[in-house]
């Protein structure tokens, strides 16, 4: 566990935590800046009032960030479901193409063994129909591949949004630590017998 002495709004405090010393200093500097900014906006505020305002703002952002993460998670889950559906559809199309190719080979084999002109006409008609169906399947496959690539791009964007939301949560956690420090400072000012240093 690391222990550092930091200065917030002119007073020194000892911070302890498992985080690195640089991180603890960064948190303290952030708290100091926020308290200073709030006091600059209204110099009639007490330290305790400034700490409460900082806490309210931090919790508000924390709640909003949590809601944003829930929305992004839902969008990501929907995107994954759509990707699974498209993959399943692609597999079905591949099986269908394979069946058509086997059927086409069977018809060609019958054609080679038959000298009947009527059968030849039937084969040609069936072959034409199969070729049209294969073209439709190829178009569907192209659309599937396009949809798949679109989903990959969307998934990448959603992952970025989730990462951004995680950073926001870390920032809000830092602010919560700041508020806790402010409360300790207020208690120190209210009761001079407490020695925080």
Automatic annotation (TrEMBL):
InterPro entries: Bac_CellDiv_Activator, Cell_div_ZapA-like, Cell_div_ZapA-like_sf. Gene3D superfamilies: 6.10.250.790. Residues 69-175 form a coiled coil. SUPFAM superfamilies: Cell division protein ZapA-like. The keyword tRNA processing does not apply. The keyword Cell cycle applies. Keywords: Cell cycle, Cell division, Coiled coil, Cytoplasm, Septation. GO terms for biological process: cell division. It is found in: Cytoplasm. It comes from the Bacteria. Pfam families: ZapA. Activator of cell division through the inhibition of FtsZ GTPase activity, therefore promoting FtsZ assembly into bundles of protofilaments necessary for the formation of the division Z ring. It is recruited early at mid-cell but it is not essential for cell division. Homodimer. Interacts with FtsZ. This is Cell division protein ZapA. It comes from Clostridium brassicae. The lineage of its organism: Bacteria, Bacillati, Bacillota, Clostridia, Eubacteriales.
